[in-house]
Automatic annotation (TrEMBL), chain A:
InterPro entries for the chain: ABC_transporter_permease, MetI-like, MetI-like_sf
Keywords: Cell membrane, Membrane, Transmembrane, Transmembrane helix, Transport
SUPFAM superfamilies according to UniProt: MetI-like (SSF161098)
Organism: Paractinoplanes ovalisporus
Full protein name: Sugar ABC transporter permease
PANTHER family tied to this protein: ABC TRANSPORTER PERMEASE PROTEIN (PTHR30193), INNER MEMBRANE ABC TRANSPORTER PERMEASE PROTEIN YCJO (PTHR30193:SF37)
Automatic annotation (TrEMBL), chain B:
Keyword Electron transport annotated: no
Official protein name in the record: Carbohydrate ABC transporter permease
InterPro entries: MetI-like, MetI-like_sf
Membrane topology: Multi-pass membrane protein
Gene3D superfamilies: MetI-like
Protein's organism: Paractinoplanes ovalisporus
Top-level taxonomy: Bacteria, Bacillati, Actinomycetota, Actinomycetes, Micromonosporales
Alphabetized PROSITE patterns for the sequence: ABC_TM1 (PS50928)
PANTHER family hit by this protein: ABC TRANSPORTER PERMEASE PROTEIN MG189-RELATED, ABC TRANSPORTER PERMEASE PROTEIN MG189-RELATED-RELATED
Family of this protein: Belongs to the binding-protein-dependent transport system permease family.
UniProt subcellular location: Cell membrane
Amino acid sequence: MSALLQKRAAPYVFVLPFFLVFAAFGAYPLAYALRLSFTKWTGAGEARWIGLDNYTYLLTSPEFWASLGNSSIMWLLVVPIQLVAGLGAAVLLSNAKLRLRGLFRVAFIAPFVTPLVAMAQVWIVVFDRDYGLVNHALNLIGLPDVGWLTSTAWSKPTLALLFLWKTTGFAIIILLAGLQSVPTHVYEAADLDGASRWRQFWSMTVPLMRRSLSFLLVIQTLAVFQMFAEPFVVTQGGPYGSTTTAGLYLYDHITASDLGTGAANSFLLVILVFALSLISVRFLRARDE
Amino acid sequence: MNDKRPGIPTYALLAVLAVLFLYPIWWAISSSIKPAAEIISDPLSFNPLDATLDGYRAMFADVPIGTGFANTALVLVVKGAMTLFFCPLAGYAFAKYRFAGKNVLFGIVLLTLMLPTLVLIIPLLLEMSALGWVNTYKALILPGSIDAFSIFWMRQVIAAIPDELLDAGRVDGASEFGLFRRIVVPVIRPGLAGLAVLTMMNIYNDFVWPVVAVNDEKHQTLQVVLSTLAQNITGNRIGADFATVWSELLAASSIAMIPLLLVFIFLQRHFINGILAGSVKG
């Protein structure tokens, strides 16, 4: 084969494996799911074409909206706290004169490295109502037991805490890298102008960090709306459906063998997730002008 | 910020945070070597002199955790090798070649980046059962084995290599694949290390797809084995042996987290590079 021909063909050969895998396990199932979402099928026998019925069923189903509601509450419990606390910790860590920075950084990312399923199980034990560590500690200081995983009021915050514990280190690392790319002369100029630290933080650090913050906002919004393993392992969606997130509700269609509805639910979720990402990106772009 | 020496409040705050982050891990591992009864009667205590491996012994007898580790190792090696070979190769094509359709093809890569995993779960499961692949290693390994994110990342890394270096290789008569193997791979070694560590973490911790694709004990990955354990426990609260069950659960959870924590401690820099590379796409 001539060198020129080889150079022409090479890039196609190099990208081919990805597109083969994508065609077989990405594009094909996606197209199949789209068709499936317009049918009624239980996994056996003939699929029956029912048009938009799955979509109208879901959009009028209280359970579907409840799952989105649960995910929205999770979002409120997780994302604002994570962005604010993460930025605070990153600012403290970015101080060039801070000692033991490496050690702090290791401590903060360690949870991100642990397997979610393993830690979800530890959560079951730690937050157990009768024998758990947390209630034991509360009793020691004279407070009563709390049904962390058995009451509808506390089940969401307890799962949100698992998510926060596990991923805030990730946010800190991203924000720390963002902070370190802010040029120091900007602050020197502000110091000369006599701007206070607090003022500097709000009028300089936060705007300059918009890129890192928007990245985290999008990534964590997607993650919260797809949250699955936490409720699947810790609460199985209970008590009384209070932790049935959008991701877990989708899975319930598989166990119920209601695959057409499941496929429709998937697409509604994709549309939602895309819309949410677009809105966050827009929101941050608009303020960039 | 142009920095003042941090005061005691800064250190105190960071130390409190660090303890909050590390305590659950420490509690799980230390409790896994406590006498079972004490996990319940005195969860806050830890006496190294009373340390025991009873929980681990019972766990190994009751739980197919060895099978879980073996399956995870197999998936890790094969899937990891595919990612580490094919993703830089595709990234190289997108970074260093001009070819018809390149923008469209790269656009597809970018679109798949935004595709939520959950959407594919149901259709993929149906595809697996149509192919007769449910409960096979193929089902665990092939879907997602060459992922868009790694291609995107490797493209960024390879784009930084000067074209002159590749042209010099061509003059020396290297084949196109030879350029990749002899010039690109050695230059991007740090990026590859980051990719390797992050890929390893993702495959090791992957749960959603394995729990759907596999339901027989023989093919369960480590995370799936762990999750069945939790369900047995929450499903069966009344029993004299509550403490023993918890002890086994903590032993299984600890043993599952220790390998990754060790890799993390020794390869910290690559881990952090890997995490940061992920933020480039933002």
